């Protein structure tokens, strides 16, 4: 059974749709591994219907307390919301959930297990996070809808000479669209001007008058991803804000003139400018836009090729893999599986008795252990594929841990994950006895917050079970 992924994000004409769009991109990448539900206070009906058609569940909530009440501790939670603060993150973590934050402003302390920011030139040092927090940063982890991901993998196509694509989002309350079109129209070097607006754009009448007066201006409204790609991939230049559409244009290998008009675009703008991915137009003043257009015509044969390889979905599947696994109790049929894992060379090397285990001895041992009330053996699996095992043996006031991961799946963070899930299953105080030269396992227990007592050539790790209120 798939594990659950809950996404908390909102969007409407006032706050924009960027959070919902990039979360839907992540959801598309992970749909084969998770049962995905969006929890929204604000979501347009059209987008809600689109999400449902893609296989996501959409659930409307009245407030954020309603969301907290839904959590059981077993879900992976994704937050993409400027209004959800550090305390809200702590509330989610206190439930026992894994937490992922999509963030592009780093304006608070984070308690997330994973932080995603696909802007270029972002570093871990920019975040105030926890020692356990992992990061997925930069264009290698770009959150683009599936058609754009697939288009990014393809070779660059010939562009229509001196053609331009203009888009400022769905509503464009500042009407930068019409202002930009007027400036471009006064430059005789452009042959074709394609303008995209959303269904909530309120200045269509005056824009259509411009189009009727100038045959090289074409207006396009409320395009879907495939229609956008068809239009963009043949265009030489795009004039855009530093929002999600900038990354879509870079994926399609367009030259881009870009700037900002709201604060939350500044991080992507700074990163793109520093990486020399855009021709800078600052805040879209008439003078700055004309300068940027002149620079395009002066340097268009020297434009830097942007590397968005279309493999971010594969990378995210690897990052989220450890959140998609689950445990089940071992049974009699697992005897040979555990025998093979027990005789893995690295397992034997790190065991206190490193001699090879004989099959007959293992059969007797396993037959006793599987029936023993003081032993719990659990199998880690993904889609019924066994990945590793964890065993708890009752000793005094603690349960002692023994675990191993199949050699084919090491290096994916599953060691820490199997211990976390095992403790959640057991709900008791635990300890582990580890050779000091088993550096990998030592790091796993230390990263999970176990206390360590060194006893010569062994480390004794202990952790109290934190009962939830």
UniProtKB/TrEMBL annotation:
Catalytic residues identified in the record: 19
Domain of life: Bacteria
GO molecular function annotation: acyltransferase activity, transferring groups other than amino-acyl groups; hydrolase activity
Binding site for substrate: 145, 248
UniProt-listed InterPro entries: Acyl_CoA_acyltransferase, GNAT_dom, PseG
Keywords annotated in UniProt: Hydrolase
UniProt xrefs under Pfam families: Acetyltransf_3
Residue ranges annotated for the N-acetyltransferase domain, each copy included: 325-466
NCBIfam families: PseG
Protein name per Swiss-Prot or TrEMBL: UDP-2,4-diacetamido-2,4, 6-trideoxy-beta-L-altropyranose hydrolase
């Amino acid at each position: 059974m798939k594990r659950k992924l809950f996404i908390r994000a909102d969007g409407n004409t006032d706050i924009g749709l960027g959070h919902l769009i990039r979360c839907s991109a992540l959801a598309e990448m992970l749909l084969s591994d998770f049962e995905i539900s969006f929890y929204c206070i604000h979501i347009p009906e059209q987008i809600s219907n689109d999400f449902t058609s893609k296989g996501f569940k959409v659930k409307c909530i009245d407030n954020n307390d309603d969301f907290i009440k839904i959590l059981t501790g077993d879900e992976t939670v994704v937050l993409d919301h400027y209004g959800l603060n550090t305390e809200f993150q702590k509330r989610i973590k206190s439930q026992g959930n894994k937490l992922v934050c999509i963030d592009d402003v780093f304006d608070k302390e984070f308690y997330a297990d994973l932080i995603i920011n696909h802007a270029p030139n972002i570093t871990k040092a920019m975040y105030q996070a926890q020692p356990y927090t992992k990061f997925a940063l930069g264009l290698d982890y770009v959150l683009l809808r599936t058609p754009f991901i697939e288009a990014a993998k393809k070779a660059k196509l010939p562009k229509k000479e001196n053609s331009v694509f203009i888009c400022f989002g769905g509503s464009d309350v500042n009407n930068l669209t019409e202002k930009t079109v007027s400036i471009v129209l006064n430059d005789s070097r452009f042959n074709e001007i394609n303008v995209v607006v959303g269904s909530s754009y309120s200045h269509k009448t005056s824009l259509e008058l411009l189009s009727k007066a100038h045959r090289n201006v074409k207006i396009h409204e409320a395009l879907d991803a495939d229609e956008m790609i068809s239009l963009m991939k043949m265009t030489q230049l795009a004039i855009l804000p530093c929002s999600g559409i900038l990354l879509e244009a870079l994926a399609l290998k367009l030259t881009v003139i870009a700037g900002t008009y709201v604060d939350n675009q500044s991080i992507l703008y700074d990163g793109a400018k520093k990486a020399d991915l855009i021709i800078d137009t600052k805040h879209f003043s008439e003078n700055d836009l004309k300068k940027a257009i002149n620079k395009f015509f002066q340097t268009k044969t020297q434009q830097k090729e942007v590397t968005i390889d279309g493999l971010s979905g594969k990378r995210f599947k690897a990052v989220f893999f450890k959140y998609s696994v689950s445990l089940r109790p071992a049974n009699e049929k697992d005897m040979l599986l555990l025998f093979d894992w027990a005789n893995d060379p690295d397992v034997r090397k790190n065991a206190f008795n490193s001699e090879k285990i004989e099959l007959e001895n293992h059969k007797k041992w396993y037959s006793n252990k599987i029936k023993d009330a003081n032993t719990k053996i659990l199998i880690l699996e993904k889609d019924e594929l066994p990945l590793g095992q964890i065993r708890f043996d009752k000793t005094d006031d603690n349960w002692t841990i023994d675990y191993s991961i199949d050699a084919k799946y090491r290096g994916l963070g599953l060691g820490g994950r199997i211990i976390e899930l095992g403790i959640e299953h057991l709900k008791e105080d635990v300890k582990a006895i580890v050779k000091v030269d088993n550096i990998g396992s030592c790091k796993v227990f230390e990263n999970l917050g176990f206390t360590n007592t060194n006893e010569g050539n062994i480390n004794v790790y202990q952790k109290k079970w934190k009962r939830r209120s």
